[in-house]
Amino acid sequence: MYVSFFNLREQPFNLTPDPRFLFLSPQHEEALSHLLYGIYERKGFIAITGEVGTGKTLLCRTLLERLDRSVSTALIFNSYLTDLELLEAILSDFGLTCAEATRKAYIDTLNQYLLDEFTAGRNAVVIIDETQNMELAVLEQLRMLSNLETDDGKLLQVVLIGQPELRDKLALREMRQLDQRIAVRYHLHALTLQETRQYVLHRLSVAGGANAITFHSRAWSLMHRYCGGVPRRINVLCDRILMTAYVQGSRTITASIVKRSIRDLGDSQHVAPRHRRAGATPWGRRLAYGSLAAVLVAGLAGSVFFWPSIKPYVERLKLPRMFALTRLPAPPVSPSSAPASPSPRTPTPDSLRTAPSIPEPQSQMNTQLLQTLWRVKTRAEGGVTFSRRSRQAFRVSRAAQEMGLAITRFDTGMQQLQRLSRPCLIAVSLDPSTPQTTLWVFVQAQDDGILIYQEPEGITRISRRLFEQQWYGTVYLTLEASRYLGTMLTKGMQGEPIEKLQHVLQGLGYFQGPISGYFELQTLKAVKAFQRDHQLDVDGHVGPQTLMLLQHVGGPL
After folding, report:
1. Which CDD domains match (predicted)?
2. What 3-state class would DSSP assign to 55?
3. Residue range(s) occupied by CATH 3.40.50.300 in the chain
4. Where in the chain is the domain with CATH 1.10.8?
5. What's the average model confidence in pLDDT over 448-461?
6. Going by C-beta distance under 8 Å and a sequence separation of 6 or more, which residues neighbour residue 46?
7. Which of 39, 375, 461, 466 could staple 449 via S-S, CB 3.0–4.6 A?
């Protein structure tokens, strides 16, 4: 009913798992990468878990689209099977028949098929959805299938997809043999508030209504609070929200529309106001909180006085936060009065061990972006050093979100780094003998060195030889969150974003056709060529990584 009102091509929030609507949040993209890696590297067992409605089935269908013709698949949706029924279902999905309905006959037929596939250079994978429903005996039968292997790798890859109960089942003592054979694991969490916003806007964009609907900020927070970041709940609520807005004749989603939609769904406790405790007044609560705060402050001060050994830890915790809060973003400037780029200076010997001062680079640097990236670095490090990449990536992502930036991580090489025309963050190791790393604000790569930005010195140069000893390939690309809304550009879409995409690809030499604003076959080939040259997943979709890399090497979209 509301499709024509909002100028949509189709309903954007259907519950059916349509891969066209897949929103690749950073964790979904990572989960998909885990799946592809485990299958193509013949790792055997792969386990993907997540709460109800977090997109596991849709991820499974997207995986089937991403696999090439060298991989044959068997997809099992009915997990309430006996061990013999499971073997029969696997053979049937591979297109095999067996003369005898016995376990030995089934396994012999499957083994011969897998050997033929392996000899022909092909791979085979069994994907089982809702695996948490399987009986232990059936899971044990799956473990026995892992014995089908050669000296070069597993003949059969098995993907187990299920709810968190699957992890509990695998943790049982009688399941330890299967649990130990799972080489690749990933758990899907609920979406954050920012990812929820990106998810909704992405589905609207795929349905043709990227700019047809606006949302108030309070509406977003109510939606996320009610749905808890679960995509399926988001779909149900957003479908009701669009219906409510249609009935009211509004193309703007307000908090009242969200509340009305939640009431219509018959579940309002998530947005109900908290009830005050009898006799508790705002003034009484403030007095109680103030007294508690005073006690805590006095206790902390006394602990520092009586136990001087904890004082360094208190100072280390306090100073980085003060530093982060006192550095404010640079005010915007008009083009006529734009200041010159930050002057490159020579760093101190104790800071970066860099080369002498350098002349100002030819292209004018984005001063405000450099300062913002420096604040992201400062907040992410927060007085600590990183010994694990995952911990570093988490803190960088959180700090970037606080500064209004969307971010994605790449592991790349020097040739790729030289192509970047937009500042970013890179991870380096100042002492190769230790696993500890730190962050630098990368400005530009030159023939004889690398330009980085640091405060208060400005832009400094590091010799290329020294840099290559310290950098291990990790890059964090960023983009203003207001410009990146999580939308994936794919074949069949049209409009201004596609026109900008074609302009950028044309400027990079990948797109030779007319600028039409329609994502057709020639644009698809250009996107795939760009992804291939930059070591991305060659899927033809302009998702988060492809979009950000295009922004850094080609220009704004």
Report:
1. AAA (cd00009)
2. coil
3. 26-188
4. 1-13+192-267
5. 86
6. 34, 35, 38, 39, 157, 158, 159, 160, 182, 183, 184, 185
7. 461
Q: Are 392 and 411 in contact (CB under 8 A)?
A: no
For residue 378 the two structure tokens come to 């400062």
Model pLDDT for residues 41-73, shown as the tens digit of each residue: 888 899 999 888 888 887 888 888 788 888 888
Task: Count CB neighbours of 253 within 10 A.
Answer: 24
Instruction: Enter the DSSP assignment of 192.
Output: -
CATH topology of domain 26-188: Rossmann fold (3.40.50)
> Any alpha helices (H) in 157-227, and if so which ranges?
165-170, 176-181, 193-206, 217-227
Q: What is 238-296 written as a DSSP string?
A: HHHHHHHHHHHT-SEE-HHHHHHHHHHTT--TTTSPPPPPTT--HHHHHHHHHHHHHHH
CATH topology of domain 360-374+391-480: Cathepsin B; Chain A (3.90.70)
The model's pTM: 0.47
Domain with CATH 3.90.70.10 in the chain: 360-374+391-480
**Which band of pLDDT confidence, cut at 50, 70 and 90, is reported for residue 547?**
confident
Q: Which of 371, 300, 314 is nearest to 341 (CA)?
A: 371
Q: Which two tokens stand for residue 544?
A: 């988060």
Whole-angstrom CA distances from 68 to 18, 40, 41, 63, 352 are 19, 10, 14, 10, 46
Q: Looking at residue 275, what is its pLDDT?
A: 38
Q: Output the six-digit token pair for 6.
A: 């909002």
For residue 226, what pLDDT is reported? 92
Residue 192 pLDDT grade (very low, low, confident, very high; cuts 50, 70, 90)? confident
User: 493-554, which class in CATH?
Assistant: mainly alpha
Residue that has been written with the tokens 């009701």 in this structure? 240
More confident residue, 337 or 460: 460
CA–CA separation, 401 vs 452, rounded Å?
Answer: 22
3 state SS of 214: strand
Contacts from 553-557 at CB under 8 Å and sequence distance 24+? 553/419, 553/420, 553/421, 553/508, 554/504, 554/505, 554/507, 554/508, 555/421, 555/504, 555/507, 556/483, 556/500, 557/497, 557/500, 557/501, 557/504
- From residue 437, alpha-carbon distances to 388, 431, 440, 441, 493 in Å are 8, 8, 10, 14, 42
* Rounded-to-integer distance, Cα 405 and Cα 167, Å: 34
Q: Kindly state the tokens that stand for 455.
A: 């405060």
Task: Spell out the residues 6+ positions from residue 13 whose beta carbon is closer than 8 angstroms to its own.
Answer: 203, 234, 235, 236, 238, 239, 242
- The predicted pLDDT at position 330 comes to 36
Given pLDDT bands bounded at 50, 70 and 90, which one contains residue 483? low
Task: Answer yes or no: are the C-beta atoms of 546 and 530 closer than 8 Å.
Answer: yes
Backbone torsions φ then ψ of 288, nearest 5 degrees: -65, -45
DSSP bridge partners of 49? 162, 187
